[in-house]
Amino acid sequence: MAAAAARGSNMRKAGGFIGLVKDAFQPHPHPHQPAGVVDKRAVEKCWKLMDKVVRLCQNPKVGLKNSPPYILDLLPDTYQHLRLILTRYEGKMEVLGENEYFRVFMENLLKKTKQTISLFKEGKEKMYEETSQPRRHLTKLSLIFSHMLAELKAIFQNGVFQGDTFRITKADAADFWRKAFGEKTIVHWKVFRQALHDVHPITSGLEAMALKSTIDLTCNDFISVFEFDIFTRLFQDVFNMVVEVPRWTNAKMEIATTEPLNPIKQDVKKGNMRYVANVFPHKGYIWNYGALPQTWEDPGHLDESTKCRGDNDPIDVCEIGTKVLLPLLMFGECI
């Protein structure tokens, strides 16, 4: 009986993965449509759920560290920007409520806040353990809330909708979006995928799934002009940096070069988590520290200037600036 149940569970898991691949690749004649018109009451309902999430995260037992992405800053900032938007559209709420981007955003915000509340309910005592699976899910959700806030501020600059005039940085990318979607601010993933496939064939379900997990930063099955701009800017003639230790933090995160998919994880020495030293009088590291992907320091090469050899890891890099640069959730299941 137990063996049969286990086999059934494995079949469900395999079917779920295959379903994800098919869903990412195959055309869909009727993509999901966002909820109906959003009114002020719907926004206020979402605010109440956001407030509940904040109260759950403020529990001293959770012990959240004030380092980005910091959900206790993100949700209040999201609340303030939504209030600004409602103020700008006072007396013409019907215009805002019928805005497709705003409807998709609010539906996703409602969904993600409910998921966070459920995470606390189901995780129970595990939420108090920093290295537990539920806490990792909370970090993922925090990163998604961060992307959602950045997108909302870009589309509703100063509280006013400017999605139809949003400027995509790269000219060829802007031309593709305009020809495929006109002045639309957001399109369903399946519509986007088909338009991209027409000019750049997507040859497998795994390729489509990897693309979706890279570009759909807000994990809502829609692609916004903001997300498309971020995605296409990854291919500019610039150095890409993987941020391992964001500014003002000191957890010694590193690219795990020996593990599948090379995840970023905190370094461990003799069973203990490692941290970089605080730079007095500040707490944490004073710059954004990380590495250049797809590079390698050769241990066999002796540098003429420093007389040092490579450390068999990617090339280290520091970004000297005023902003805190966050690691970006590129691959993995969206919550």
Automatic annotation (TrEMBL):
EC code(s) of this entry: 2.3.2.27
Domain Cbl-PTB: 32-335
Enzyme class per UniProt: transferase
Pfam families given in the database record: Cbl_N, Cbl_N2, Pyrophosphatase
UniProt keyword annotation of RNA-binding present: no
One BP term from GO: phosphate-containing compound metabolic process
Entry similarity comment: Belongs to the PPase family.
Notes concerning its domains: The N-terminus is composed of the phosphotyrosine binding (PTB) domain, a short linker region and the RING-type zinc finger. The PTB domain, which is also called TKB (tyrosine kinase binding) domain, is composed of three different subdomains: a four-helix bundle (4H), a calcium-binding EF hand and a divergent SH2 domain.
Protein name: E3 ubiquitin-protein ligase CBL
Organismal lineage: Eukaryota, Metazoa, Chordata, Craniata, Vertebrata
